[in-house]
Fold this sequence. Notes:
Chain A is mostly beta strands. Chain A is built from no helices and 12 strands.
Amino acid sequence: AQxxxxxxxxxTVSEGASLELRCNYSYGATPYLFWYVQSPGQxxxxxxxxxxxxxxxxxxxxxxxxxxxxxxxxxxxxxSVHWSDAAEYFCAVGVFGNEKLTFGxxxxxxIIP
Amino acid sequence: SQTIHQWPATLVQPVGSxxxxxxxxxxxxNPNLYWYRQAAGRGLQLLFYSVGIGQISSEVPQxxxxxxxxxxxxxxxxxxxxxxxxxxxxxxxxxxQSNAGELFFGEGSRLTVL
Lengths: 113, 114
């Protein structure tokens, strides 16, 4: 069965600084990979997804993620964070033929002025 | 375009009372439907999913049940709530047989059991 790990529970970043959120997965083949964002009290919104092809994926709100097969990682990046980026971020993995996603435990992002 | 709605958005219920959370999807047919629970400070736990009317798969044994009386309607229920049922409940849908599992989430329903 697939699994996904987000090693950072909470990250604090200054506004304008760069951001990288880590995500590692475990699966024998190439999975489908997702990043979702959740603002307090809200549902989850898809930021970006990787199915195949170019390993650098661009998403909404200026986010990008890179799939690295050798490291089993799909880290989320943003060159310059804004106060509105403060939220909970979830990495998720899906596999071919299985219609259920497996979610990581999330990383809470705090932005300081 | 497709939309998904959950209600009620907020619910405060006493222990032992019944529960009904409803989720409706618009703009698509025969979606896969999911109920997740998010406890405070924790990740998402898949509770139930459905690939068609009357077809419910339970992921964890618990005090809750789910039903799908219509193609685009998914209901989460309990006959008697426990304190541990408190949490944020999220409904989601995906395209049937997409083989990718991309989910689209509702706004969530916050349940507090007192």
